[in-house]
Design a protein that fits this description.
Elements: H1 2-11, H2 15-31, H3 43-63, H4 66-79, H5 95-98, H6 108-117, H7 124-143, H8 150-159, H9 166-179, H10 184-197, H11 199-219, H12 222-237, H13 244-253, H14 259-279, H15 281-297, H16 302-316, H17 361-376, H18 378-388, H19 392-404, H20 413-428, H21 432-441, H22 449-462, H23 468-480, H24 482-497, H25 504-519, H26 540-557, H27 559-566, H28 572-575, H29 584-596, H30 604-611, H31 613-663
Helix pairs in contact: 6-7, 7-9, 9-11, 10-11, 10-12, 11-12, 12-14, 13-14, 14-15, 14-16, 20-21, 20-22, 21-23, 22-24, 22-25, 23-24, 23-25, 25-26, 26-27
Keywords: mRNA processing, mRNA splicing, Nucleus, Translation regulation
Protein name: MI domain-containing protein
Subcellular location: Nucleus
């Protein structure tokens, strides 16, 4: 091994020669200005250099004073320039920094302060600030709208310049609908109200929605397509869009049916089928025939087939549960529809979403202010504000006006809630005592006592069979307060006047309820005076009601006690209409009616009256004849008296003549 090593050294170069070569190589590297990337220092060299640099830095730091350190820091700060943020006041120089839609976020208080600081109201800076404020206001109003506050949001939305911000409104409305498709009908109702005043705004939104639908259909974007289809369906329901676009859309989806396209079509027809049934029944029939053909072909998935069968069931039920427009969202009477087709070339007008300086900005703002006053009627409010500062007397007058102008609940929300509370209390109670105790705790405003009686009677009529629970509950209220007794009397009159509208089951329950109240004298019997039992004044429903009423009374009281009650002299005036004696025909009808229902025993007085009617008639005629004869005899006696007096006077005159002759 040693020999080989020595041989290798002699064959190569000696150690001294190698050192010389290394030194020459290092000198060559130092002299050259270019740096060779291939010749990298070794790891040992890097470690030694880093250690030496650290030591030098430590020495420098020890030798530096505090003043030198501060000076070095200031020089570094001055050399490194920080990036400048765009100014809050937008101008032509930094307009590009703000971006398309307005740029950086500005807090509302700072934005209002900046708007007040701007003196030139027609300048570009002021217009941009108002544009940002308009965008934020429209987004906020659209984002918080729902079915309960839509009537409050609409005036606030009209207070904003919708002519200038129509692009902002359309974009905000579409984004909100995409984020929450469950509120699509609310957004459609909002668009319908705006369509009544500004049709061009609703037309722009409809065009953008149609364009969004076409793009989603081409890209096979199912979530976006579902949202757009649902929006179009509710715009058709609100009659913002013509029904022809609905037929075009369904025909497009079912032209080459797939699982997804058929599913989207089923959802669309479910949403707007009710309005299509009214507007184009033939078109809807054609749609369902196409669905039927798809079912017979059987090329789609079982799940989608079940969806189609469910749609046929909804159609058979006349779209119950899927109304075109909910009552609280039916806000427009005069509706204006736009004819937009899927085949039209549509321009989205995206330039309306971007700020542009308006040379006639102040004039346009004044025009919209005048239009806003016409829509919202703000003249009266301005007059009221002026009168606030006038005097204390004016202030008192305004308080009276405010009392008169208080908002009235025309939707009867409080009344509906009261009825719901009464219904739940009645249905959740174990017995009538518990129900009566709970119902008495409900605070009723003056005039709402009638609602309690109406709901009690309504609950009773809805049962399959009559429950004595309701009769006992009504009896308790009649005994507690006379107001409830009077209200039940009114209910009796109302129910009998509308008795022909009730079904037989409801009619039976109502009759048994009032029979219970009459049988225990909780309800006075003079309410029977409203019933007139004749062939002309009764219907089949009213005769059934009277039959059940008197049969229940006979079961409660017994036929003997009922007959005694009916024969009571104090009751005769109230019962004249049920037991008529004015005409033999009506009397016979009442007798036959009560006999046919098994209560002939209460007609004994009527039978005697009808039996004695000829004799009574003869007596009446005889009395009339006697009265006439008596008047005739009186006249004859007076005539005879006059004749006798005249004859006696003539005899006396004859005698006097004879005496005179004799004397002569």
């Amino acid at each position: 091994m040693l020999d080989s090593i020595h041989m290798g050294r002699h064959d190569g170069s000696s150690e001294e020669d190698e050192r010389v070569r290394r030194s020459d190589r290092e000198r060559g590297h130092r002299g050259s200005n270019t740096r060779v990337t291939a010749d990298k220092p070794s790891d040992d060299r890097q470690k030694s250099r880093s250690e030496s640099e650290r030591k030098q830095e430590g020495l420098l730091k020890r030798d530096w004073s505090d003043s030198q350190r501060d000076k070095l820091r200031n020089e570094e700060k001055s050399e490194v320039a920080k990036p400048k943020l765009p100014e809050l006041n937008p101008s032509d120089s930094n307009a590009m920094a703000l971006g398309k839609t307005g740029g950086v976020y500005i807090p509302p208080f700072k934005l209002a302060r900046m708007m007040n600081e701007v003196e030139d109201k027609s300048s570009v800076e002021y217009q941009r600030l108002t544009w940002d404020a308009l965008r934020k206001s429209i987004n906020g109003l659209v984002n918080k709208v729902n079915a309960s506050n839509i009537k409050n949001i609409i005036p606030e939305l009209f207070a904003e310049n919708l002519i200038r911000g129509r692009g902002l409104f359309c974009r905000s409305c579409m984004k909100s609908q995409m984020a929450s498709p469950g509120f699509t009908d609310v957004f459609a109702a909002l668009v319908a109200v705006i369509n009544a005043k500004f049709p061009e705004v609703a037309e722009l939104l409809l065009k953008r929605v149609v364009l969004q639908l076409k793009r989603a259909y081409k890209r096979n974007d199912k979530p976006q397509l579902l949202a757009a289809v649902k929006f179009i369906a509710h715009l058709v329901n609100q009659q913002v869009a013509e029904e022809i676009i609905a037929l075009e859309l369904v025909s497009l989806l079912l032209e080459t049916p797939t699982d997804d396209s058929v599913e989207v079509a089923v959802g669309f027809v479910t949403e707007c089928g009710a309005i299509l049934q009214d507007l184009t029944p033939k078109g809807l029939h054609g749609i369902f025939e196409r669905f039927r053909g798809i079912l017979h072909e059987g090329d789609i998935d079982k799940r989608v087939q079940y969806l189609i069968e469910g749609l046929f069931a909804i159609r058979k039920a006349k779209f119950q549960g899927h109304p075109a427009v909910r009552p609280e969202l039916d806000l427009v009477e005069e509706k204006y529809s736009h004819d937009v087709s899927l085949n039209d070339k549509i321009s989205p007008d995206t330039s309306l979403d971007v700020f542009k300086p308006d040379p006639d900005f102040l004039e346009n703002e004044k025009k919209y202010e005048a239009l806003k006053k016409e829509l919202l009627g703000e003249d009266e409010s301005e007059d009221e504000d002026g009168s606030d500062a006038s005097s204390e007397e004016d202030g008192s007058d305004e308080e009276e006006d405010e009392e008169q102008m208080r908002i009235r609940d025309e939707t009867e929300t409080n009344l509906v809630n009261l009825r719901r509370t009464i219904y739940l209390t009645i249905m959740s109670s174990v017995d009538f005592e518990e129900a009566g105790h709970k119902l008495l705790k409900i605070k009723l405003e003056p005039g709402q006592e009638m609602e309690l009686c109406i709901m009690l009677l309504e609950c009773c009529s809805q049962e399959r069979t009559y429950l004595r629970y309701y009769g006992l509950l009504g009896q308790r209220f009649c005994m507690i307060n006379k107001i409830h007794q009077e209200n039940f009397e009114k209910c009796f009159v109302q129910q009998y006047s509308m008795i022909h509208r009730l079904e037989t089951n409801k009619l039976r329950n109502v009759a048994k309820f009032f029979a219970h109240l009459l049988g225990i004298d909780a309800l006075p019997w003079h309410v029977l005076a409203y019933i007139r039992l004749t062939e002309e004044d009764t219907t089949s429903s009213s005769r059934i009601f009277i039959k059940i009423l008197f049969q229940e009374l006979s079961e409660h009281l017994g036929i003997r006690l009922l007959n005694e009650r009916l024969q009571d002299p104090t009751m005769q005036e109230s019962l004249e209409s049920i037991f008529p004696k004015d005409n033999p025909k009506n009397t016979r009808f009442a007798i036959n009616f009560f006999t046919s229902i098994g209560l002939g025993g209460i007609t004994e007085s009527l039978r005697e009256y009808l039996k004695n009617m000829p004799r009574l008639i003869m007596q009446q005629q005889k009395q009339v004849a006697e009265s006439e004869s008596s008047s005739g005899s009186d006249s004859s006696e007076s005539d005879s008296d006059t004749d006798s007096s005249s004859s006696s006077s003539s005899d006396e005159s004859d005698r006097e003549k004879r005496k005179r002759r004799r004397r002569a």
